[in-house]
Design a protein that fits this description.
Four copies of one chain form a homotetramer. The longest helix of chain A is centred in the last third of the chain and has 23 residues. The model of chain A has no long low-confidence stretch (mean pLDDT 94). The two termini of chain A are 34 Å apart. Chain A contains eight helices and 18 strands. The first copy, chain A, is an alpha+beta fold. Chain A has one domain: 4-Layer Sandwich (Chorismate synthase, AroC fold), CATH 3.60.150. In chain A, helix 3 packs across helix 8. Chains B and D meet through helix 3 of B and helix 3 of D.
Chain lengths: 360, 360, 360, 360
């Protein structure tokens, strides 16, 4: 009862990392959107393993099929079903995990909650689930591109203790994909790369943050009270595997400030439109977009699977050592960038549609 | 379309700060819960204005009425309707705001989104809306108390630059309400009080953080993928007025760590139950509770209404000065504690019920 | 978890017949609708007891209050809360029912389902709940009137064996309220009146049908697959107390026909718009409105409360006689007409809004 | 936004008759249900074309694949995805329909609503969509069988003017599948067969009714107010292609009766359980099951596609003749029986789960 996201631009995902396949049904994409399959494939490429030495070398199929909802390259208003069959899985890598609960993984909680679990590759709890989000997010992005100026960006802004000290305004988003780390600042990107590579050689993993930016947002997106724009963005990001925190605008730093310096004072721009002089609000006031850039930061913990032996306890309570096997990411951040993008696009498409029915 | 929260223990809120009244309809509270109206009143007392010198001195009615759903002091399984009529509002305080957009308030975004707004006291965007959450949260807490060991706490953990450096384990939660700041550490509480009072005298406001803790959680609450327990908690907190960030477990600090030190290693307790040696996971793994304490931190910005003149622009684009009038909080934190509690209780009641239908 | 109706124009109702009050929260009414309280009062008048000798003589308050969501006589886009406090209830009339299950009432099923029930006047199962629907339906009607040509009508088309043999096209809907039976055909209305009055004097009750008609419907309302326009209308009507059946267009008679005579052949009208020569489809094809009139029929059983002794069994299984006490309707049809109207308006408002987001 | 059915046992369907494939994602099936793929295949067999001379001779693939949610032949609590790839479609049969609106089909309404339609075989409006319902319904049935005594039956009770005059109690449900008509009364079945075959030879089609029966229902399923058990059953049935009406219990006949003869008087059975002497209520009182058999009737119109030329108008308003081409059902009833079963099972599984959270 939990694999649905969105109120109007709704997505329903399914699939396990080592099952037959994974996919998504989008119910709520308006009719008449031009659907470009290459654009979907491009986002899947950004997420896929093996892009560089600092991400997992697993082989995974990213070959998707559009099963429904598109005719003559346009959405028809009926559910759009996108599916990827698994291929190249090495399920035997996971036989040793049948009765073992890996530390800081979902093995234990799934087993206790459901009384059964697909232990191969984490099953439903695997980040492989995010291929569904990326496919759906690409459709959302294509919709937004065709009806609005909304554009979504994200990039790696810190790895471990290395933090990019430039604001998003001082970065060139066109360079995000230029470096395997997906940090658009070349110098910092190189440092991050070295750090991750060192961690990798050490059989360890490392966390970091991704900064998201949304530009071209019309005034009025987001809903009062529970479905505030930033609350839904927060939920979207927190629902991504390994995420531990979310802040937008001034965020946790804003909690240290005084109102007199935090308030964003209004002024009129050259066209007489109201804008704010500063943007501590992160483009959202009272849960509703005010036209300024939306920006936020997402914290990712270090990947739980490390290439070292860890103490643990098996399902029967016996002490065991969990072996670090398989092909895993030393740092999830570079491959998480398209996932953050996808979730941003899904949230924005949903609120864009919700706003169409907010007044007579 | 946004005043509903929860999937099974659902609440629907309504009301404006200067309208006729505010309230909540709870649809999904199981039959047979003993309903104690005094417990509801107690939580409203914790939220109400005028508790001390460092909160707003506004007069607001907290007199609620149970309109339905309770018979012989028990829930009947039908919707529970709770309502408070407004009283003591001084709407004239707001006449000057008809054409004025207060900085960092929702005036501008509501007006643009809806083409109309109730400008008196912020209307629906006012934090007065949270009386509905507090009432419903109390019912959720009563339900949880009668069917589980789940207990919810929260306290002020920082104000401005003053940060409590003790962990939640080193605090005595029974002292939270002992001090007007709702910081359970007497020494820090006093410092916070002085800080807030100084800010108040200066006509300014200040932000801070609240730490939430949930104990006695059974293993298995929370859902995979989108409705992860922490994602829903995050959305709940981010939906509270003035919140800018949410983190749980290791949070943003965890993003700096390595897997080898971040992972929570399992061990068996004296009863053979699996527990973890550390709790960077914050009691949640894969979106599902693992039985350990859940803890999280919520960042609040400084209140936007300050007792100083601020530059702004009116609805017609003319430059004006916004006067700081009325009776407002210099720091929202002490009164936000019961609201954080309410949202925690609502989330936990909802997931407790959802878990009842997760397996055969 | 079941007092919500609608997907976008959503209503949440609450209240018991002998509790403190009843009401509805409308979440999803667009901003900018002119709200006329007199129009709401008018619909409540049509539903209220004591209109004539052939309906119940109970005293009930219909005095409602708008608690939120309306400012300067316009909807603001925030939840509209409407409430009626009970008054004039004679709860003592029901003391004898504490341990008694009235035949064909909901007493037994509520008690078994919830383990508790408000036995006074049927509690939540009472048709008094429909005041909430009528209030919300009036708001929906006002919205539709301001944005479309959609008009909703209904009238009593049969009582017992007396069936109006004219089609809806041959009736003058302006006469519906001219007669206490709400049958717009004066001659048949008089016969129905006599029949109901005779049944009443006999301490008995009688069933009948209401025909609903919706005109001015644009092409395109309704959704494919599960939320077909007629499926949602059907659910709406079947959710009204005492309803046993629903058919639209050719209905059960259509099931006897052959395709060659049932099919509605297209032709172009004078403006070149496509219309159908016949309307067995009842204005809906594939679940979506085709611009022709929508018409349907709703079957109501005879009211279960009769003014005679009935055998029954109490909660402990003892044989007892249920006394017919209180003030009840010999025939629910005349007062059900505004309820059918309300449900039609709610369904149409919801689908009108849903259609706004169906294509780019 | 309309391909979802159910509140807890939720299904999401997708697919077009001549697209790549069709399928369903079940989100809300509890973990631990034994899943028998043969049982699913068996229900698909009952629905498939070519079973006899009186149904369509189209070739359609019914080969399904389970993509997710099942592990070691048990449901895991994660979404169950079932998919069928299309095969054997003769899309060229439909080329002539690109600009043509078939009478009483959804061609016109889809085109107007969405501005685009997949005209091949009706696209999403085709009854081929019901393969998804049948697959999901089988999973629901398997769940119900493993946790309750609930059993669902349906059979053809009339074709055209031929009506089975026996009540469901006098029929042997084990004989439903014995005859191609799916009428369990051998004599009437034969008459129906002759009637349908004659209609078929005549290039025409004919309607009829299906009676549904649900036995072994515990007391307490169904929800008050809008989600009454019969209202949801009604919506479920009305959402099936070609359905024009729904009645339960006494239905439209009950509308002619008086309360004194319609009321179902209680008595105690040998075990002291309360039962009713009669069952005009159709097993449902106040929207909630009372333990008696649930029974209802569903009216199907004659199939719109006839093997004759029909006048119509094309998309440009030109008069044309629609040719009856392709392979179609002269009577949809026999193949609709498993679809009615599927919808009954889906509704019952959903309410069974909803009832688990109705009291403490």
């Amino acid at each position: 009862m939990s694999s649905t996201f969105g109120k109007i631009f709704k997505i329903h995902t399914y699939g396990e990392s080592h099952g037959v396949g994974l996919g998504v049904v989008i119910d709520g994409c308006p009719a008449g959107v031009n659907i470009d399959e290459d654009a979907i494939a491009y986002q899947l490429e950004r997420r896929k393993p093996g892009q560089s030495k600092i991400v997992t070398q697993r082989k995974e199929s990213e070959k998707f099929e559009v099963l429904s909802g598109v005719f003559d390259d346009k959405s028809t208003g009926t559910p759009i079903s996108l599916m990827i069959k698994n291929d190249g899985q090495r399920s035997k890598d996971y036989d040793h995990l049948k009765k073992v609960y890996r530390p800081s993984h979902a093995d234990f909680t799934y087993q206790e909650k459901y009384g059964i679990r697909d232990y191969r590759g984490g099953g439903r709890s695997s980040a492989r689930e995010t291929v569904a989000r990326v496919m759906a997010g690409s459709i959302a992005a294509q919709y937004l591109q065709q009806v609005s100026d909304i554009k979504v960006y994200s990039y790696v802004s810190s790895v471990g203790d290395l933090t990019l000290d430039k604001g998003y305004q001082d970065l060139d988003f066109s360079k995000i994909d230029d470096h395997p780390t997906r940090c658009p600042d070349a110098e910092m990107a190189e440092k991050m790369y070295e750090l991750i590579d060192g961690v990798r050689k050490n059989g360890d993993t490392i966390g970091g943050t991704i900064t998201g930016v949304i530009t071209g947002v019309p005034v009025g997106l987001g809903e009062p009270v529970f479905d505030k724009l930033h609350a839904e963005l927060g939920k979207a990001m927190l629902s991504i595997n390994a995420v531990k925190g979310f802040e937008y605008g001034s965020g946790f730093e804003g909690a240290k400030m005084r109102g007199s310096s935090h308030n964003d004072v209004f002024e009129a721009d050259e066209n007489g439109n109201l804008i704010t002089k500063t943007n501590h609000s992160g483009g959202i006031q009272g849960g509703i977009s005010n036209g300024a850039d939306i920006y936020f930061k997402v914290a990712f913990k270090p990947v739980a699977t490390i290439m070292r032996d860890q103490e643990s306890v098996d399902a029967d309570g016996n002490e065991i050592a969990v072996k670090g096997k398989g092909r895993h990411d030393p740092c999830v951040l570079p491959r998480a960038v398209p996932i953050v993008d996808a979730m941003s696009n899904l949230v924005m498409a949903d609120f864009f549609l919700r706003n169409k029915i907010s007044k007579v």
